[in-house]
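Reminder to self: tokens first, then the designed residues, so the page reads top to bottom the way the pipeline ran.
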């Protein structure tokens, strides 16, 4: 029987791989046989991720995606060392609790650089001839915040909604090249970033505080691997007819 989730001999780029969903995705891809080029801002955290991976040929790349003008250089390095891409996963992202009356252009721009502009620029760069193999699948991590209003999250929600909107247009434009583009929308997920958010909101840096912040995810709290599983499905041949879609991975959050 054909193993649809076998990623052997595939080269996948993962951003935001130093923690949370990005780290879980890089590890899972390595376990499924992929060569993973993975990007993060902190060298020591990149090496921690590498130590958790299996297989050979993985390439840690220390780089800040907010430096959008240099993204092409880092992609050239990844492709030069590991070959054309079969998958690209955008997990890099940041969040700030910003009440509307304190959101000025500079803060929005800073958030958009990491959350959206870097995604847009990386898609533009990796979709050029010679940088991808036939069947390239692109998956971006968006958020249920793009669909559901959350207090003090206007800028963050806007950045994630921008990913979803551009993804649909990218899916149409890149289909003639054989490239698929999709997003996953995690609900509250047990990551360091979300625990910090809980601490800010509730004063308790404990994942059980999710009952205060997000009671609607009635299947429970996501773990990073739950989102990574969905990402790998969208990278794999099992999803070869899926493009231009938003896949919630939210424990039921958006169904209420």
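Designed residues (256 positions):
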């Amino acid at each position: 029987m054909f193993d649809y989730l076998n990623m052997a001999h595939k080269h996948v780029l993962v951003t935001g791989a130093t923690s949370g969903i990005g780290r879980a995705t890089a590890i899972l891809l390595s376990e499924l046989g992929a060569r993973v080029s993975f990007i993060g801002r902190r060298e020591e955290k990149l090496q921690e991720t590498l130590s958790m991976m299996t297989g050979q040929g993985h390439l840690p790349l220390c780089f800040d995606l907010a430096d959008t003008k240099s993204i092409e250089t880092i992609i050239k390095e990844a492709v030069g060392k590991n070959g054309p891409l079969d998958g690209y996963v955008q997990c890099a992202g940041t969040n700030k609790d910003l009440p509307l009356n304190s959101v000025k252009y500079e803060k929005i721009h800073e958030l958009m650089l990491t959350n959206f502009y870097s995604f847009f620029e990386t898609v533009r760069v990796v979709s050029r001839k010679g940088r991808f193999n036939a069947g390239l699948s692109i998956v971006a991590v968006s958020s249920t915040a793009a669909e559901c209003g959350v207090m003090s999250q206007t800028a963050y929600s806007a950045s994630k909604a921008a990913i979803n909107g551009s993804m649909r247009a990218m899916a149409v434009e890149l289909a003639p090249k054989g490239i698929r583009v999709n997003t996953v929308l995690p609900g509250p997920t047990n990551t360091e970033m979300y625990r910090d958010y809980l601490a800010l909101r509730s004063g308790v840096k404990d994942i059980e505080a999710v009952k205060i912040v997000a009671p609607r995810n009635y299947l429970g709290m996501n773990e990073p691997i739950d989102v990574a599983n969905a990402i790998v499905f969208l990278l794999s041949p099992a999803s070869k007819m899926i493009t231009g879609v938003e896949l919630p991975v939210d424990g039921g959050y958006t169904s209420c």
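The longest strand covers residues 132-141.
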